[in-house]
Write a structure and sequence with these properties.
This protein has 2 helices and 4 strands, in the order ββββαα. By secondary structure, the chain is of the alpha+beta class. The strands form 2 sheets. It has a two-stranded antiparallel ribbon. The chain has a two-stranded antiparallel sheet with strand order 3-4.
């Protein structure tokens, strides 16, 4: 992962990058922007961020599997 340094902070994406999160058992596709940076600053540890849909889907599958054990 290439971190982006901006405003004395490191971010996992640069403006305009597509990224994915898993929220409420759904995979959400977003585009990184200033609002994403605000959310990351406030609750960065709350979400896992993924560069690809496939990575987000694999994470979602593992969570579903663990939940249904």
């Amino acid at each position: 992962m290439n971190w982006v340094y901006k405003n004395n902070r490191y971010y996992p994406f640069d403006e305009g990058d597509t990224y994915y999160t898993v929220e409420n058992q759904q995979i959400v596709e977003s585009v990184w922007d200033s609002v994403s940076e605000e959310i990351y600053d406030e609750c960065g540890d709350k979400y896992k961020y993924f560069h690809t849909y496939r990575s987000a889907y694999s994470f979602w599958l593992m969570k579903e599997y663990d939940k249904n054990k």
